[in-house]
Amino acid sequence: MDRRRFIERASVLGGLAITPLSYWPILNKPRYKMGYQLFSIRDEMAKDPVNTLKALRKMGYQDFEIYGFDEGKKAYYGFKASEFKRILDDLGLTVSSGHYGFSPYLNKGDDELKYYVDRCIEGAGTLGSKYITWPWIAPEQRTIENFKLMAQKLNAIGEQVNKAGLGFAYHNHGFEFEDHNGQNGFDIIVNETDPKLVKLQMDMYWVMHSSKYTPQELIDAQPGRYVMWHIKDMDKTTRDYTELGNGSIDYTKLLPDPVKSGLEYYYIEQGGNYSVDATKSASQSAKFFKRHLQKLL
């Protein structure tokens, strides 16, 4: 390198060294793909899944959490798992987690549960998902005895899923925080499951709706365990779901420390109460998130 080129290069590097970090585009690039829980747009996915995914991609969504696995046909949204994976690949999209139907297996035998979990592992593996998630239990199952039974099942599933090279998580709603004579399901799930086998997916709406904690307080008690988040807003009057930015949850102040959380994926979600329809709500939440929240992650 000649002397003149050396001086020119040194000058450029010197200028970069004093440039404020906020001007470095690479440092402002989001660390996470913008995710969406497809249950939020379930009617459209049932009618026309491919064009629905294309519409979500145009909004900026890149990653999804699925629901509605058909274990008999090993299918998602009417497509065999391998076909659905090809659709995702063609669109440049990913599915990092899925909500699977474990609730009917809570009171069934170990062999039946193991068989179902094997089906879930096969489906999730075909999609290239990182996590299999237990999303809820039916209202009639929500007793302290069943929460304790579920903790045992969660550990068993977690061991089976982890051995297959995938991760396993539990997703909270609000019922886990309900008091049962001084006990609640959430404490049982958190304390009676192995953190190495059973990770947690925090639904921040339900934490704010039904618990006495903030998301950060829960993370402080279980650092590194909340590997996924659900982000949705709460209607200011009805406390039902609503589009991001329309409700009472100020995520610009509420979002926890993703590093302490152990965050790997997040999913924007709105299960109903759409201002117009599910598609417009998905678009509105995407715009708000990109404008106000994505920079925080």
Automatic annotation (TrEMBL):
<dbReference type="InterPro" id="IPR050312">
    <property type="entry name" value="IolE/XylAMocC-like"/>
</dbReference>
<dbReference type="InterPro" id="IPR036237">
    <property type="entry name" value="Xyl_isomerase-like_sf"/>
</dbReference>
<dbReference type="InterPro" id="IPR013022">
    <property type="entry name" value="Xyl_isomerase-like_TIM-brl"/>
</dbReference>
<protein>
    <submittedName>
        <fullName>Sugar phosphate isomerase/epimerase</fullName>
    </submittedName>
</protein>
<keyword id="KW-0413">Isomerase</keyword>
<dbReference type="Pfam" id="PF01261">
    <property type="entry name" value="AP_endonuc_2"/>
</dbReference>
<dbReference type="GO" id="GO:0016853">
    <property type="term" value="F:isomerase activity"/>
</dbReference>
<feature type="domain" description="Xylose isomerase-like TIM barrel">
    <location>
        <begin position="53"/>
        <end position="256"/>
    </location>
</feature>
